[in-house]
Amino acid sequence: MRSSAQAARLRFYDWMGVRFGEPVIVFWGAPIVRPGWRRRFRDVVLNALANTVQVNTFGISPAHATDLVALFRRVRPVLVHGYCQSIYEVARWLVEAGETFPLRAVSTTVEPLFPEYRTVFRRAFATEAFDEYGCGEVEAIAMECSSHRGRHVIEERVVLELDSEDNVIVTDLDNLAFPFIRYRNGDRAIAGKQSCPCGRPHQLLDRILGRVGDVIRGPDGRRVHPEFFTHLLNETGIAQKRALRKYQVVQEGPTRLRWRIAATPLDDGDRSWLIDQVRAYLGEVEVQFEEIDDIPVARSGKFQYVVVDR
To answer: What CATH number does the domain containing 269 carry?
Structure first.
């Protein structure tokens, strides 16, 4: 991982009033394909050094609320970090259970942070949310300070532009292996119209209109974060092997998923493995594949890659 991205995150910790090494709970998706022992050992050591406990968001449900309450009481974190939607769901379960765990900050990423989420975070954690924006190809791009007036673009490591339709165009400044120059990452954002009261001179993003995905629920109440399906395709190399251009998972009913894939055709082994993994996390669901040339964006202009057809 690039040192400049790590440095930006350490500065972000400072903005949130958190010191590196203080206890943190991270809500993130764990690898679906079990990594080798060296990778597992490395992760254990790094989490111990950073005083971090990671909760696998793939498969957690309201039934785990009691275990999560016990975890918060044991770890006594000052910060919760991870997928915005997952933290929101956990916060909602805690509120419904009448539990409050005061933190110093909540750090959200991957999905848009909606205003109504902030209200729930205040009730569950008695603190404010700080939003981080980035993408896997470039990593950290913009982060929110304690003034909560927008996300400061990390101009030491990226140049960010918005075109006439608010599409994000990013150039990274520290990738010596394969620089991304004026790269369109598929997200949209709204530029800040005023300077931040904190006095920092960075370019501001008011809102991130990123990719949107729904939480998929199985027939027995188990659920998976939308990133689960991206992990499935990437961890086995199916995305690379089949030259994946785009995908969309649609839940058409409690026990039925339609998986649209724009790629070269899957073979029987790919299909069987994907179905087995989905059922391992969600229970007995029917998975139908639809191989097509392209998948249109939603009427809002955003591409929704996991959809619950309500």
So the answer is: 3.30.300
Residues 6+ apart with CB under 8 A from 304: 211, 212, 213, 214, 248, 297, 298
Structural domain containing residue 250: 212-308
> What is the model's pLDDT at position 136?
81
SS3 content of the chain, % helix, strand, coil (to 5): 30, 30, 40
pLDDT band, residue 303 (cuts 50/70/90):
low
Looking at the structure, do residues 128 and 277 belong to the same domain, yes or no? no
Q: What are phi and psi of 24, to 5 degrees?
A: -135, 140
Look up residue 146 and give its two tokens. Answer: 């304690």
Q: Which of these three, 178, 209, 240, is where a domain ends?
A: 209
pLDDT value at position 300?
47
Pair of tokens at residue 166: 């608010």
Q: Are residues 55 and 173 in the same domain?
A: yes
So what's the pLDDT on residue 298?
Answer: 61
Instruction: Out of 177, 209, 241, pick the residue that ends a domain.
Output: 209
56, 30 in Cβ contact below 8 A? yes
CB atoms < 10 A from the CB of 77, how many?
Answer: 22
| Structure confidence by residue, pLDDT tens digits, 104-159 | 999 999 888 888 889 999 999 999 999 999 988 899 999 999 999 999 999 999 99
Cβ atoms 92, 73 nearer than 8 A = no
Between CA 9 and CA 152 the distance in angstroms is: 12
Q: Residue for token digits 């991206």? A: 230
Beta-carbon contacts of residue 129 (< 8 Å; ≥ 6 apart): 105, 106, 107, 108, 113, 117, 118, 121
Radius of gyration of the chain, Cα coordinates, nearest whole angstrom:
20
- In this structure, the answer to whether residues 91 and 9 fall within a common structural domain is yes
- Contact by Cβ (8 Å): 219, 278: no
